[in-house]
Design goal:
This protein is α/β, with parallel strands linked by helices. The chain contains 10 helices and 61 strands. Among the domains are: 159 residues, Ribonuclease Inhibitor (Leucine-rich repeat, LRR (right-handed beta-alpha superhelix)), CATH 3.80.10; 191 residues, Ribonuclease Inhibitor (Leucine-rich repeat, LRR (right-handed beta-alpha superhelix), Alpha-Beta Horseshoe), CATH 3.80.10; 48 residues. This is Leucine-rich repeat protein.
C-alpha cells in the first residue's frame, strides 16, 4: 500500500512540475502537427523562420503555443516583427513569409490566436475559411500583403476580441476594401478594431455597425476614405477610449456626435481638412488625454476657451495648422485653465507661426516635450523656466541673438535639445551647457555662431547624439569628443574641419552607430578594419581627402558613403558580404580593377543605391548586382566594357541607370523597356553602342531623362518617344517634407531610445536621397542633384541617326532640353516645335535640315540656348520672342541661305541673287508710301497707294495665316 501511495504521489508531483513549467503532458496532437506541416508546405520561407518545424512535438516549434493541459495548438504567432525603419524605407525583404495559406489551418480547431502580420502574401484575398476558426479571440493580418474584398465570413468570429487588418501605408498588394459592413456588428466581443488603410468608401454604414459593439474600446480608421456622418441617432460607444479618424480628407465640420463620447481618452482627427476645427464643445471630453488635430490646414475660428478646461489632457498636437493671427500671445487665457497643470506634450510645428515665443508657455509647468520647429518664430531664444522639460525642439525657425548661457538653470532635465537652422549669432562655449547633465541629444546645426568648446571641456557624459553639421567648429578636430564614451552619433558634416583624423577616433566609443564627417577637409588614411565597431550602421566620410584602401566594415553596416576622396586600390570583396547594405557610394575616387561579381541579390535585399562612378574601373558590369530594391545604379566615367548584361532586367525597382562614359558595346536591348518599368533616368552617354533606338522605350511612363549621346546609334528616331508620359506632365517630387518631419517628430518623441531609426528617418526622409547625374545642358556639363527630379531632357547627339525629326516629339510639352546635334537628320524642323513651351535648350546643329526656321519658335519664351548651325536652313531669322536675346551669330553659321539679325547677311541679297524686300512693320509701310507719293506726284500717287495697299494686304494675309496656324497648333497642344 505504501509503495502504491508513493507512486501516486510521484506521478502527482510530476504533473504539477510539468504544468508549472508549461510543458504539455500530452505533447503535440498528431492531427494538428500534420495540419501545421501542410500549412508550411504552401509557404515560401526565405529567412528560414520555420526551420524549427521538425520533430514530433509541434508545441516546441517557433511561433506555436499549445494549451498546457490539452496539448491543443491555441496560438500561432508568425508575425514578422521588424524594426520600424524597415517599414518606412526598405519595404519587403527576405525575412517575410510568402506563398499561399493552406486550408489545413482548419485542423487547428482550438486556435485562439493567429498573427500573420508583416509578411507578404502577394495580393491574395484574405481566406474566407478564417471565419470557421470559431475559437479565435485574436486575429492580426496587418501589413501582410492581402488585397481585395474583406470576406464577410469574418463576421462568424463571435469570440473575437482583437481584429487588425491594417496597413502602415497603402500598397498595390495591401489594398483591402469593405463592400458590406453589417458583419462587423456580429463581432459582439470585439474590443480592438484596426482597419487603417482599408477602403471603406463603399461601406456607408460603417459607423452604425461599429456603434452596435458594446465592448469596443479602441477603433483605428486612418486612411479609410471615410465619409464621416455629421450625426448619429444614438451614441452607443460607452466604453470607447481611443478613436483614430485621421487622414480621411474630410472637408466638413467636426461631427457633433464626437463630443458625446465622454469616455474618450485619445482622439486623432489629423489630416482631414476639417473646418471649424475646435468647436467649444471640445470641453465636453473631460476624460481626454491625447488630442491630435494636426494637418487640418487652418484654425479658422481660433482656439476656444473650453480647450483650457480639459484637465486630463497630457498631449496636444496642432501641427500643420496655420493660426490666422500668427502671434500666439492672445492664447494666454486658454492656457491659463487647468490644462496648464496637465499638459505634458505640446506640438505645433510647420504652421507658419510668427513673432516671439509667447509668455504663457512658462505656465505649463508639467510640460515634458515642446515641439515648435519648422515655423517662422523670430526674436530671442526661448527663455522660460520649465523645470520638467525633457525635449525642446525649436529648430528651423528665424531666431536671432545669442544662445542664453543659463540653459541648465532654465531646463535642468533636458534630454533632447535642438535649435538647428536658425540665425543665432555669437560664440557658443561650454558655459552654455553647464547644468545639462542629462542631455543625450544635442543639435545646433546651421546657425551663425562660432563654436568654441575648449579641449578641457567635460561634456555631458550621457550624450549619445551630437549633430553639428554646417557649423563653424574647425579648423582643428575637436579633442573633447574622445570623452564621450557613450556617443552613438557623431555628425560634423561641413563643419570647417581642416585637420588629420586622430588615431583615437575609431576607438573612443564602442557604441558608435552613426559617423558623418562629410564635406570637410579631413586628411589621413582609413584603418584597414573597423569590424570592432559592431554597432556601426552609417558611415559618411564623403567630400574629404582620405587616402588608403577601403576598410573592412562590420556586418551590420547599412550606409557607406565614401565618395569624393582619394581612396585607391581595388574594390574589396568584403563589401559583398554586408547583407544589410542600403546605400553604397564610392564614386569620385581612384579605385582600380574590376568590380567583384559577388553581389547576391538574396544577400542584399535592401540595397537601394550603388554608385562606383568616376573611378578607374574596368571589365564588365557584374551579373550579380541586381537586388529587388536597387533604385539608383551608377557606373559612369570608368573604363567598363562588354555589353549590357541580361541580369539587369532583374533590377525591376531601378529608377536611374547611369552607365555613361565607358566602353560598353552592343545594342540597346528591347528587354530594358519591358523589364525596367520604373526607370526615370537612362544615361548611356559616350559608349560604343550600335544599332537602332528601341521604339519600346516609349512605353516607359516614368522616363524623363534620355541621354544616348556620343555613340554609334543608327536608324531613325522612333516616333514612339512621343508617348513618354513623364515628359508631358509636370514632374512630381517623390517625398513630402512636412510628412517626413512629422514622422521624425513621432520617432524623436522617445528621445534617443532608438538612435538608428531617429537618424535614418530624419536625414533620409526629410532630405530625401539625392540622386545625382551629370547632364550636357546648354553646351556645358551640369551636375544635377537636388533639382534632378525636375529635369526633363532628351540628348541623342553625336550619333548616326537619319531621317526626319518625328513630329511626335513636339508633344513632349514639359521637355526642357532637346539635343539632336551631329547626326544625319534631314527634312524640316517640325512646325509644331512651338508646342515645346518649356524648352530651355535646343541644339539641332550639324545635321542636314532644310527649310525655314519655323515662326512658331517665337512661342518658346524660356529658350536661352539655341544652336542651329551647319544645316541647310534658309530664309529670315525670326525677330521676336527669344530670338533677339540670342545675339551670338555662331548659332546660325553654316546656313548660307539664312539672313537677318544677328547675321550680317542682308536679306536683300542671299547667294548673289536679289530677293524681294519686305517692310518690317506698318509704320515703315506708311513712311515709304508717303515719300514715294511726294516723288512721283499726284498722278502716280494713286498707284503707289494701291501698291502699298496691295503690299499691306499681302502682309495681312501672311499675318492672319500665321495667327490661324497658332490657333490650330495651340488646339493640337491642348487636345494632345
Amino acid at each position: 500500500m505504501g509503495v502504491k501511495l508513493t507512486a501516486v504521489l510521484l506521478v502527482f508531483l510530476y504533473l504539477q512540475v510539468s504544468l508549472c513549467n508549461g510543458v504539455s503532458i500530452n505533447g503535440c496532437r498528431e492531427s494538428e502537427r500534420k495540419a501545421l506541416l501542410d500549412f508550411k508546405e504552401g509557404l515560401k520561407d526565405p529567412g528560414r523562420r520555420l526551420s524549427s518545424w521538425i520533430g514530433q512535438d509541434c508545441c516546441t516549434w517557433s511561433g506555436v503555443q499549445c494549451d498546457n493541459q490539452t496539448g491543443h495548438v491555441v496560438q500561432l504567432d508568425l508575425g514578422n516583427k521588424r524594426p520600424l525603419h524597415n517599414m518606412f524605407q526598405y519595404g519587403l525583404h527576405s525575412e517575410q513569409l510568402e506563398g499561399k495559406i493552406n486550408h489545413a489551418l482548419l485542423g487547428l480547431k482550438h486556435l485562439q490566436y493567429l498573427d500573420l502580420s508583416m509578411n507578404f502574401f502577394g495580393g491574395i484575398q484574405i481566406p474566407a475559411f478564417f471565419g470557421s476558426l470559431q475559437h479565435l479571440r485574436y486575429l492580426d493580418l496587418s501589413c501582410a500583403g492581402f488585397s481585395g474584398l474583406v470576406p464577410h465570413q469574418l463576421g462568424n468570429l463571435s469570440s473575437l476580441h482583437h481584429l487588425d487588418l491594417s496597413s502602415v501605408f497603402s500598397m498595390p498588394c495591401n489594398n483591402l476594401h469593405l463592400a458590406r459592413n453589417h458583419w462587423l456588428s456580429n463581432l459582439s466581443s470585439l474590443q480592438y478594431v484596426n482597419l487603417n488603410f482599408v477602403d471603406l468608401s463603399k461601406a456607408p454604414d460603417w459607423l452604425e455597425s461599429l456603434n452596435t459593439l458594446p465592448s469596443v474600446s479602441e477603433i483605428y480608421l486612418s486612411n479609410c476614405k471615410l465619409e464621416i456622418p455629421h450625426s448619429l441617432a444614438h451614441v452607443n460607444f460607452t466604453k470607447l477610449q481611443i478613436l483614430d479618424l485621421s487622414s480621411n480628407i474630410v472637408h466638413s465640420v467636426v461631427p457633433s456626435w464626437l463630443f458625446k463620447l465622454t469616455s474618450l481618452e485619445s482622439l486623432d482627427l489629423s489630416a482631414n481638412a476639417f473646418v471649424k476645427l475646435i468647436p467649444s464643445a471640445i470641453g465636453n471630453l473631460t476624460s481626454l488625454r491625447v488630442l491630435n488635430l494636426a494637418n487640418n490646414r487652418v484654425l479658422e475660428d481660433g482656439v476656444p476657451l473650453s480647450l483650457g478646461n480639459l484637465c486630463m489632457l497630457t498631449s496636444l498636437d496642432l501641427s500643420g495648422n496655420k493660426y490666422l493671427n500668427g502671434h500666439l500671445n492672445e492664447l494666454g487665457e486658454v492656457f491659463s485653465g487647468c490644462i496648464k497643470d496637465s499638459l505634458e506634450i505640446l506640438s505645433w510645428v510647420c504652421s507658419e507661426l510668427t513673432g516671439h515665443f509667447p509668455d504663457w508657455l512658462g505656465n505649463l509647468k508639467s510640460l515634458r516635450m515642446l515641439n515648435l520647429y519648422c515655423n517662422s518664430f523670430n526674436g530671442p531664444f526661448l527663455q522660460l523656466r520649465l523645470h520638467s522639460l525633457k525635449k525642446l525642439d525649436i529648430s528651423r525657425n528665424a531666431l536671432n541673438g545669442s544662445v542664453p548661457v543659463n540653459l541648465g538653470q532654465l531646463y535642468p532635465k533636458l534630454v533632447f535639445l535642438d535649435f538647428a537652422y536658425n540665425n543665432l549669432t555669437g560664440v557658443f562655449t561650454e558655459a552654455h551647457l553647464v547644468g545639462l547633465a542629462k542631455l543625450q541629444h544635442l543639435g545646433f546645426s546651421a546657425n551663425e555662431f562660432r563654436v568654441d568648446l575648449g579641449s578641457q571641456w567635460v561634456p555631458p557624459l550621457g550624450l549619445k547624439m551630437l549633430v553639428m553639421w554646417n557649423t563653424k567648429l574647425g579648423p582643428g578636430f575637436p579633442s573633447w569628443i574622445q570623452k564621450l564614451e557613450n556617443l552613438s552619433a557623431a555628425v560634423f558634416s561641413n563643419a570647417g574641419i581642416i585637420d588629420s583624423l586622430p588615431d583615437w577616433f575609431w576607438n573612443f566609443s564602442k557604441n558608435l552607430q552613426i559617423v558623418d564627417l562629410s564635406h570637410n577637409d579631413i586628411r589621413g588614411k582609413l584603418p584597414t578594419s573597423l569590424e570592432h565597431l559592431s554597432n556601426l550602421r552609417y558611415v559618411d566620410l564623403s567630400g574629404n581627402s582620405f587616402e588608403g584602401s577601403v576598410p573592412q566594415f562590420p556586418a551590420n553596416l547599412m550606409y557607406l558613403l565614401l565618395f569624393s576622396n582619394k581612396i585607391a586600390g581595388r574594390v574589396p570583396k568584403t563589401l559583398c558580404y554586408l547583407k544589410k547594405l542600403v546605400a553604397l557610394d564610392l564614386s569620385k575616387n581612384q579605385l582600380i580593377g574590376v568590380i567583384p561579381d559577388c553581389w547576391n541579390h538574396s544577400l542584399h535585399p535592401r540595397l537601394f543605391t550603388f554608385d562606383f562612378s568616376d573611378n578607374k574601373l574596368y571589365g564588365g558590369i557584374p551579373a550579380t548586382i541586381c537586388s529587388p530594391s536597387l533604385a539608383y545604379f551608377h557606373l559612369s566615367n570608368n573604363n567598363l566594357s562588354g555589353e549590357l548584361p541580361l541580369s539587369l532586367r532583374n533590377c525591376r525597382a531601378l529608377r536611374t541607370l547611369d552607365l555613361g562614359q565607358n566602353k560598353i558595346g552592343g545594342s540597346i536591348p528591347t528587354w530594358l523597356a519591358k523589364s525596367l518599368l520604373n526607370l526615370e533616368v537612362l544615361q548611356l552617354r559616350q559608349n560604343m553602342l550600335v544599332g537602332n533606338i528601341p521604339p519600346e522605350l516609349g512605353n516607359l511612363t516614368n522616363l524623363r531623362v534620355i541621354d544616348f549621346a556620343y555613340n554609334h546609334l543608327s536608324g531613325t528616331i522612333p516616333y514612339n518617344l512621343g508617348n513618354l508620359r513623364a515628359m508631358k506632365f509636370a514632374p512630381a517630387i517623390s517625398y513630402n517634407r512636412k510628412v517626413a518631419l512629422v514622422i521624425y517628430d513621432k520617432l524623436a518623441a522617445g528621445y534617443v531610445d532608438n538612435m538608428e531609426v531617429l537618424y535614418m528617418v530624419s536625414s533620409k526622409l526629410v532630405l530625401g536621397y539625392m540622386d545625382s547625374i551629370k547632364v550636357n545642358l546648354k553646351g556645358r556639363h551640369v551636375q544635377y542633384d537636388k533639382l534632378l527630379p525636375l529635369l526633363i531632357s532628351v540628348d541623342l547627339s553625336r550619333n548616326e541617326l537619319s531621317g526626319e525629326i518625328p513630329e511626335e516629339l513636339m508633344y513632349l510639352s514639359y521637355l526642357q532640353n532637346l539635343n539632336l546635334s551631329e547626326n544625319y537628320l534631314t527634312g524640316r524642323i517640325p512646325e509644331k516645335i512651338g508646342m515645346l513651351l518649356r524648352l530651355e535648350s535646343l541644339d539641332l546643329s550639324k545635321n542636314d535640315l532644310s527649310g525655314a526656321i519655323p515662326t512658331t519658335m517665337i512661342m518658346l519664351t524660356f529658350l536661352s540656348h539655341l544652336n542651329l548651325s551647319y544645316n541647310n536652313l534658309s530664309g529670315r531669322i525670326p525677330q521676336s520672342g527669344q530670338f533677339p536675346a540670342l545675339p551670338d551669330p555662331s548659332i546660325y553659321f553654316g546656313n548660307n541661305a539664312l539672313c537677318g539679325f544677328p547675321l550680317h547677311n542682308n536679306c536683300e541679297n542671299i547667294d548673289g541673287q536679289s530677293s524681294v524686300w519686305y517692310p518690317k512693320n506698318e509704320d515703315e509701310v506708311e513712311k515709304i508710301g508717303f515719300y514715294v507719293s511726294i516723288a512721283l506726284g499726284y498722278i502716280l500717287g494713286f498707284w503707289v497707294l494701291w501698291g502699298v495697299l496691295l503690299l499691306n494686304k499681302k502682309w495681312g494675309f501672311a499675318y492672319f495665316q500665321f495667327v490661324d496656324y497658332l490657333i490650330h497648333a495651340t488646339g493640337d497642344c491642348l487636345w494632345k
